[in-house]
Amino acid sequence: MQRKSKAAIHSNNAVITQRSSSNNNNMKIASVQRRKFGTSPFDEHWLNLDCCGLICACLTYCLHLYGCYSVCFILIPPWMSYHDSEGIRHLTMMGQLNCFAFVGVAVMAVLSHLKAMMTDPGAVPPDAKPVLSADELAALEQSEKGPSLKPEEVNLRPSSPTSGLQEGGITMSSVTAAGAGAAVAAVAASLPTKPNPVTPGPAGKGRRLCRRCNSFKPQRAHHCSICKRCIVKMDHHCPWVNNCVGIGNHKFFLLFIFYTCVSCCYSMSLLVMRFYLCVGTHTRHHRHQHHHGAVSITTDAGVTIGGKEEGHCLDDPAQLLNLIGLVVEAMLFGLFTLCMMCDQWSVVTSRLTHIDRLKGETSSSMNGRFKKSSG
Question: Are residues 27 and 144 in the same domain?
Fold first, then answer.
């Protein structure tokens, strides 16, 4: 009697059934929970629900929003603007370009953060199996009695993290860790006993299991205790992106820290230029009063020195606190992301993740070293 097993996904649960070829009846053998967001194999969208990670992600968005507000509404308007005949302030062309450029960089940083956070970093599916070599396939075919097995029947490559469910076997790309194990165990017990084509040799040589999630663990895969999955080429778990950094989202992580570093450097350069101009304006103002005894007039448009109008440093002295906060943010996160970029540059060039270096592994071939990180 031959049986086929398949999984049917419903809105909240994934039901794994088995069909008998004799009477075509479906038998329910497992039911696993399927959430809208999560990191388990049957969840619809990848998102780590760790509370600390979600708080750090929200804080990241708030910091970028604060930077846009401070630059576009406090720093630039008193500097790059003019007043019309009715006294209404308008930004100059340079002011509009600076606001547009800064907001554009911040938006790119936020979008890169979202992609890095909601992209599967390379979690190993629960039905993943090692790939057999050509010699192992030939030896297995010779040892089998009966019709020769085709390579595709023996060599089941690990399905992609986003692969769906296939007929004739369970391709569980969205099962919870506990539910996946129960489903696989139930199906394995019901199928006829055959030599395991995936683990040839004594004691399943070549198949490495994770001690925590009990799933197949490929080379250079590491288990994340926060995501509760084995991640291929895992570099580290970043709380700021609320996700692991692995082979699936490394490119988006690099883009996020790059745009964040550019945003911090941009705001810091504007602050330095504005500080220099303000100091120069006040120096000329006091020097003019000392030498000529002229009376300076402060209007809404700026400071008038000897008939020449200079721009305001700030519309309100209380706004100085906002700019101090912007300085702290730009310096702190600018240095942090700059150090991260230098560290990730060594990861890209050597093709060794942070965990690989901690384990003392050596660098592999340098040919094509940028391909896997730049997609």
Answer: yes
CA 349 remoteness from chain centre:
20
- Considering 224, 227, 230, 238, which one is annotated as catalytic? 238
Residue 121, SS3 per DSSP: coil
Question: Total structural domains in the chain?
Answer: 2
Which of the pair, 94 or 22, is modelled with greater confidence? 94
Question: 319 and 358 share a domain?
Answer: yes
What gap in Å lies between CA 243 and CA 70, rounded to an integer?
29
Number of residues written out for the chain: 375
The whole-model pTM stands at: 0.70
What would the mean pLDDT of 153-173 be, rounded to a whole number?
44
Active site residue 238: yes
Q: How far apart are CA 255 and CA 224, in angstroms?
A: 23
The answer to whether residue 179 sits within a structural domain is: yes
Mean pLDDT over the full length of the chain: 76
- The predicted-structure confidence for 16-55, as pLDDT tens digits, reads as follows 555 555 556 666 666 777 899 999 998 999 999 999 999 9
φ/ψ of residue 165, rounded to 5: -100, 135
Query: In which domain, by residue range, is 16 found?
Result: 3-34+128-209
Beta strands in 136-270 (DSSP E): 221-224, 229-232, 236-238, 243-245
277 lies in the same domain as 350: yes
For residues 188 and 269, membership in a common domain is answered with no
Cα–Cα–Cα angle for 29, 132, 219, rounded to 5 degrees:
85
| E strand or H helix that includes residue 290 | helix 250-292
Do 309 and 300 form a contact (C-beta atoms < 8 A)?
no
Q: Give yes or no: residues 182 and 76 share one domain.
A: no
For residues 211 and 342, give the distance between their C-alpha atoms in angstroms, rounded to a whole number. 33
